[in-house]
Amino acid sequence: MSSNNPRGRQAIDVSAAFTGIAAVLVILRLYTRFFLIRCPGLEDYMITIAMASSIGLTICIALQVHWGMGQHVTEIDPDNTVKTLKAFWASLITYNLVLTTTKISILLQYRRVFTTKWVQIACWANLAFVIGFSLWAMLGSIFACVPVQAFWTEQPGARCINKFAMFFTNAGVNIFQDFLIFLLPIPVVQGLNLNKRQKIALIGIFAVGGFVCIVSILRLHSLVAISGSRDQTYDNAPAATWSSVEANVGIICSCLPLMRPLATRWLPGVFSSNKRSIPTGARPYATIGTSRTKRNTTRNEYALDSRPHSRQSDADIREIVVTTDVRVQVEDDEGNVSGWRTDVSGKEWTEIASSKDTERANSSTDTLVKEP
């Protein structure tokens, strides 16, 4: 890369930085899901694919810069111009793959957490929308020109799609999908039986995804320059930079809500609480929805952790073996109630809870308590 190519250098530096941050969070997420709470799901595999695609996108950007992106096309060797445009074509595919797999991962995560029927239906509808549109965007990027080679070199009789229309249609639909995914959990969270501080904190966790919408909108300005450009190697540098930022911010936002168990282990004084306990056996995924047990009144449920975080000594620990559906409610010093449930039926699971918590718990089923 030429030393007088600041636009290219900026594209590499920014892309590498955001890709590195996203990679670290994905690794921490996978460690948490596979080894800490031991409950990996399909969403974790999808985010792994997204991360691999993001690395591919960064490589494509680096190759473009190596062959002249950021410089005027008149300053680049014609052979390098062709190589740059080939890498640009490949970057469109990896970019769409990152966005698609990240959105699928988030929606699958919503399906795990929110058990309310209308949210489940909304998740399926959004999944169909995301997958259907991604197929169109992917094929549109691959076959933007027919024959495909016409994307990076002149071909007699070639036909190419209007790039302005393609780029802005894809960007507009992606922004619309981002807002749908961002807004989906808000009504459920607002209806939870939480105090104001807990509710604001939970909304804040999901609202981090709104940052993706902001980045996607900021990227639109760079698309104006590249869509009708006659100097693509020069004008594509800002668009490539924003595309990488958008892709990696989506990955980062999808991982942050799942970092609570790991943060609790590393910073127990900040994130843990001896006011409550959470089931660790039968259903490690937290759920937010409506209770269906006949013995309980209908009540919203809230749980983000899936491991116990009590800091008390082993002498203060009791083992509770539950052999049926159970719902536990714990009242804190302020009179606020938090609830957890598992829909185990006919299976045993073990919950480790502090003795103080279990003495204050109101269970809707019979439990067998064994002293150590």
From TrEMBL:
One of the record's GO cellular component terms: membrane
Basic and acidic residues: bias regions: 302-314, 351-360
Region (Disordered): 292-314, 351-372
Alphabetical UniProt keywords: Membrane, Transmembrane, Transmembrane helix
Record flagged with keyword Membrane: yes
Rhodopsin domain ranges (all copies): 28-264
Compartments in which it is found: Membrane
Pfam families documented for this protein: Fung_rhodopsin
Major localisation: membrane
InterPro entries attached to this UniProt entry: Rhodopsin_dom_fungi, SAT4-like
Biased composition (Polar residues): 361-372
Entry's transmembrane regions: 12-32, 44-67, 87-110, 122-152, 164-188, 200-220
Membrane found in the keyword field: yes
Topology class, membrane: Multi-pass membrane protein
Family: Belongs to the SAT4 family.
Designated name of the protein: Rhodopsin domain-containing protein
Gene source species: Paraphaeosphaeria sporulosa
